[in-house]
Design goal:
CATH superfamily of the largest domain: Bordetella uptake gene, domain 1
CATH topology of the largest domain: D-Maltodextrin-Binding Protein, domain 2
Mean pLDDT: 91
Strand content: 15-25%
Structural class: alpha/beta
CATH architecture of the largest domain: 3-Layer(aba) Sandwich
CATH class of the largest domain: Alpha Beta
Helix content: 40-55%
Number of helices: 10
Number of strands: 11
Oligomer: single chain
Radius of gyration: 22 Å
Length: 323
């Protein structure tokens, strides 16, 4: 009888081993404040929406989620920091689309696919091109005509070199046969100051420019989604203008490589609850952003597909690093 009880206990222990390990991994997290690094400066749409997400997660966890801004380097600094972080779930990074194109444009010591743990897809952007209201450029046709008549003189700003606004504008320019003068900035807040201050002629950005359009200071020439934006129902999309491009630049959260899958799932579940709360949905809507949820497996597949697609775009634009 005693032997039978021992065998049963041993069998139960072997069956529960993986589960108990998962429970321990989940139960230990979070044991301290969580650092969430984002790729853009304070004050812009990404900063504002991610802070609401962090606040929601903090309430769900009963532990502080601290947002840390790491702008620059095409949005790759948070992901780069993951290479020096412990895989314990206390340091997380926003992963913008630019992370997947950087290996093709510069030498990197880490691999975006192998050296990150993909946790959850959160949202994407609604992009567009704006000019000052008092600009002689009133329409997209005016923009193209000016650029063709003045090669390299039409200046536009973006949120950084090799970001989605930059590469999409260069793709557009190549398709319509014009040469533009690109001026990079660290984020939306700096970019808006520049165009409102007359330092540049146009700005390619997410719809953080909407308040300035509402106040009458900026005009939207086009938007980059699959459909017109409800906020700008009279503004054509790129596809309506004969340019077959749609750009939403989805992003999400990742951690260092080597994270326990049970811990990844635990973090995913918490942040999924946080992103679906009304406060986060509402602040996204302020910038015409929608939820784009991906679970860890879906997010990894998205990363793999995007990595291949960005290679083709970088090579098409002649921006690939020398082999």
């Amino acid at each position: 009888m005693i032997r039978r009880r021992v065998l049963v206990q041993a069998a139960a222990a072997s069956l529960l081993g993986p589960l108990s390990a998962a429970v321990r991994a989940q139960g230990a997290w979070p044991s301290q404040a969580i650092k969430l690094m984002i790729a853009f400066p304070a004050g812009g749409p990404t900063d504002i929406t991610m802070r609401v997400l962090a606040e929601n997660a903090s309430r769900l966890l009963g532990q502080t989620v601290v947002v840390e801004n790491r702008p620059g380097a095409g949005g790759t600094l948070p992901a780069q920091q993951m290479q020096q972080s412990r895989p314990d779930g206390h340091t997380l990074a926003q992963v913008p689309l630019g992370v997947f194109r950087m290996p093709y444009t510069q030498k990197m010591s880490w691999d975006p696919l192998k050296d990150l743990s993909y946790i959850i897809g959160v949202t994407g952007y609604a992009f567009g091109l704006v000019v000052p209201t008092d600009s002689p450029i009133k329409t997209w046709a005016d923009f193209v005509a000016y650029a063709k008549a003045n090669p390299g003189r039409l200046s536009y700003g973006s949120t950084g070199v090799l970001t989605s606004p930059h590469l999409t504008m260069e793709d557009i320019a190549q398709r319509v046969g014009v040469e533009l003068n690109h001026i990079p900035f660290k984020g939306s807040a700096d970019l808006m100051q520049a165009i409102l201050g007359g330092q540049i002629m146009a700005a390619a950005d997410s719809t953080g420019f909407a308040p300035h359009v509402a106040s009458g200071r900026l005009r939207v020439l086009n938007t980059w989604g699959a459909q017109r934006l409800p906020k700008f129902p009279d503004v054509p999309t790129l596809t309506e203008l004969g340019i077959p491009l749609v750009q939403a630049s989805p992003y999400g959260l990742a951690g260092p490589k080597g994270m326990d899958p049970a811990l990844v799932q635990r973090i995913h579940d918490v942040f999924k609850q946080a992103m679906e709360q009304p406060s986060h949905v509402e602040v996204l809507a302020r910038y015409d952003q929608a939820l784009m949820h991906m679970n860890p497996q879906q997010y990894l597949r998205f990363a793999e597909e995007t990595f291949r697609r960005e290679k083709a775009l970088v090579e098409k634009l002649g921006l690939a690093k020398p082999s």
